[in-house]
Amino acid sequence: MKLVLFQPASRPDAPPQAGLLLPQGVVDLSSALGPATVGPTDRLMQRVIEHFDTLRSQFEALAASASPLPMSSIRLRAPITRPGKILNCIGNYWEHAQRDPRPLNMFLKNPDAVIGEGDTIVLPEFTEPEVFQHEAELGLVLKGPSKQVAQADWQSAVFGYTCFIDVSARAAGRGTWRSGSWMGKSFDTFGPMGPCILTADEVEDPNRLHVQFWNSGGLMHDYSTEDMEHRVPELIEFATAIMTLNNGDLISCGTNHEGLGPLQDEDVVSIEIGGIGRLTVKVADPLKRSWPRGIYMGPNSTNPAAVAQRNAST
After folding, report:
1. Are 43 and 115 contained in the same domain?
2. Shared domain check, 211 and 67
3. Residue 308 pLDDT greater than 70, yes or no
4. Which terminal residue of the chain, N or C, has fewer Cβ atoms less than 10 Å from its own Cβ?
């Protein structure tokens, strides 16, 4: 089941509504929500997650009987308007290197960084960062309260999956701007998410998903979540040992850095994860800066474009 938040295309100021994404369009779930309607509009998906077990049969009935709204008549929003917490893994991919796994670590990202389908990443008017880059990642949508969840019980804490772009302001090389505080990850608009939440029952193994990312049509990231150094059960155990994770909190699983490249004014970027779908957002830069096009050219990169470039230079 693919859950979304949406607005009528003609009313961009309307509060988001919960929907079910189908190939033909979006089914409005408002008539089935019951107790999930009560509360702040920016917590709607968290309430859907809380009541999902009792609402599911009604959602399925609507999917079978209701006429979907055509995509041209609606605008998808981020499936979680404002997560309570966004935890991002640091690194977390082997990237074809023969080495010991690095220690598992995470940082907190600003929940107000979240944007959704068709929105715009706005690069800040800071001149200190050397470049702004994309990181295409699998997002775990939590159900809770989840605390001290053992790896064997990891599924009890995962409601579903989404696509997440961890936009990063970088210093020299792959270092993060003001890396001691990770503030370079938390500018407003630096957390595109969507297009939906794919419920956990639809994914047999989150460590066997294909992640791709395009910048203005050029394929950049292209990897499998099977390459994670620390897999999803360990991420759940690690995070819940430290803090309670609640409905709609997010763990973003890190990225394979082989596909890193710059983001700049007028770019149109898309992330797609097998089974979840594709999220597309734009990029705007008030300062109109530009950086050389390309991708991360590390010696172990297996990105096809990096390999071709490396071969051509030898």
Report:
1. no
2. no
3. no
4. C
